[in-house]
Amino acid sequence: MLKNYKRSAEALVATLSRNGIRDPEVLNCLEITPRHLFVDAVLQHKSYENTALPIGQGQTISQPLVVARMTELLRQAGVRKKVLEVGTGSGYQTAVLAQLFDEVYSVERIKALQWQAKRRLHMLDLYNVAMKHGDGWQGWASKGPYDGIIVTAAAAQVPQALLEQLSEGGVMVIPVGEQYQVLTVYQRKGQQFIENKLAEVRFVPLIPGALS
């Protein structure tokens, strides 16, 4: 267990603020969420650096700035209640969402990662998260529609199934592309989806299917 992490967390939040994160609730959430619990022991000394870290299975825990930015985009769009996360991973982004939104539904294709994430969330007494082992490309239609969808892996093309699970006025934040990835926001207006491309990013790919 990393000792005296609070000072490191404060320094991280100061970095996020300098890099344009303005939502005080998002900043506070990243300050109080113990990121070191979501990485392997050998990497805990890097927990509060603004960098992505490996979590096994070819996956990573996202850079804190990206976590904060994607979360802030949902809140700026007025999302407060029901959110779908595609790609549970370590559970770190999930933990942030669980503290800022009423209901969180999270889909993960790798069973071992899902199990570890669930254990970590329970350690933090976060119980407003429902988890599913499945294909993130398909989302979780039976629990929709969602006010917000956040995708934590890069899709070569925008998954149509996810767009269709947005509620009217709902927004999806997703990195799109293969070699060149762009963080993009889609907002539903009837059967149309308004696209807003934001910034170049780097994520692991969103792979169809599910692994046991």
TrEMBL record:
Reactions catalysed, as given in the entry: [protein]-L-isoaspartate + S-adenosyl-L-methionine = [protein]-L-isoaspartate alpha-methyl ester + S-adenosyl-L-homocysteine
Gene3D superfamilies registered for this protein in UniProt: Vaccinia Virus protein VP39
One Pfam entry name: PCMT
EC number: 2.1.1.77
GO biological process: methylation; protein repair
UniProt KW Iron keyword: no
Entry's transmembrane regions: none
PROSITE patterns on file: PCMT (PS01279)
Any GO CC annotation of this UniProt entry: cytoplasm
Catalytic residue list: S62
Keyword check for Metal-binding: no
Keywords in alphabetical order: Cytoplasm, Methyltransferase, S-adenosyl-L-methionine, Transferase
Any GO molecular function: protein-L-isoaspartate (D-aspartate) O-methyltransferase activity
Entry's localization field: Cytoplasm
Function per UniProt: Catalyzes the methyl esterification of L-isoaspartyl residues in peptides and proteins that result from spontaneous decomposition of normal L-aspartyl and L-asparaginyl residues. It plays a role in the repair and/or degradation of damaged proteins.
Family that this chain belongs to: Belongs to the methyltransferase superfamily. L-isoaspartyl/D-aspartyl protein methyltransferase family.
HAMAP family documented for this protein: PIMT
PANTHER family the record matches: PROTEIN-L-ISOASPARTATE O-METHYLTRANSFERASE, PROTEIN-L-ISOASPARTATE(D-ASPARTATE) O-METHYLTRANSFERASE
Name this polypeptide is given: Protein-L-isoaspartate O-methyltransferase
Top-level taxonomy: Bacteria, Pseudomonadati, Pseudomonadota, Gammaproteobacteria, Alteromonadales
